[in-house]
DNA sequence: CAGCATCCCCATCGATACTG
DNA sequence: CAGTATCGATGGGGATGCTG
């Protein structure tokens, strides 16, 4: 998940020039369904979180990826960042109205996957069996 | 994403997947929201497609990635592959009932993104302006 | 036509160290 | 506490060539 779209590398220029394959809608879809993006959005549906709280809640995300994910979601207007001017620093993250809409969609999709997981597993077994 | 009673949120599920790569739910979510997976599912909502038709319809997908995507979706029980024993080969791809459910979720998410794209763009401009 | 096999680049992500 | 900076390896995926 790229934080900046103004990247001047060769790959970046090629990609941003190719609006057919990497349309902006696709990028947003990627931001909300990406590994950490989805987990962050779903977590924030419950309540707001501080940075480290979120990190513990998700459990396996690196500091770097969490920061990057939150910045991307904030830039898209899905997450609100509230940095309080205190020592030690305290930053609260919450969903915007837009972000709540996105998070609910993502949660619905996640719940669907969970509900249908048994069917998927069965399909896989049959597929693998038919191959052998 | 599945919620076990002993673990109300996300951390435990991801953590328990450390033995492998990630939890199976996450993998399925990735299959249906991946770049080519989402496009394939949405295309197949309209009608069944032959391999090359699908390739032209999506426009920028490589042969390799389309084949790979279709196999993954077929293995998950979302896509049905109908290979007719004729020369030259003819293979039709269509959605299973399970796949149709997934495709509708993905389409809903895509439509939401499209609808809210203006708001996202505005949020980005404000974010970028505030940074400069 | 509908793929599979191979090579290889480089973007993504984890790990580590550092800072206000 | 809440990040930023840097580096290395891992693997996704495009390009190409071949097959039934």
UniProtKB/TrEMBL annotation, chains A, B:
Occurrences of domain HTH hxlR-type (ranges): 23-121
Molecular function as annotated in GO: DNA binding
UniProt keyword DNA-binding present: yes
Superkingdom field: Bacteria
Keyword Amino-acid biosynthesis: no
Gene3D superfamilies in the cross-refs: Winged helix-like DNA-binding domain superfamily/Winged helix DNA-binding domain
Keywords from the UniProt entry: DNA-binding, Transcription, Transcription regulation
PANTHER family documented for this protein: HTH-TYPE TRANSCRIPTIONAL REGULATOR YODB (PTHR33204:SF37), TRANSCRIPTIONAL REGULATOR, MARR FAMILY (PTHR33204)
Protein name: Transcriptional regulator
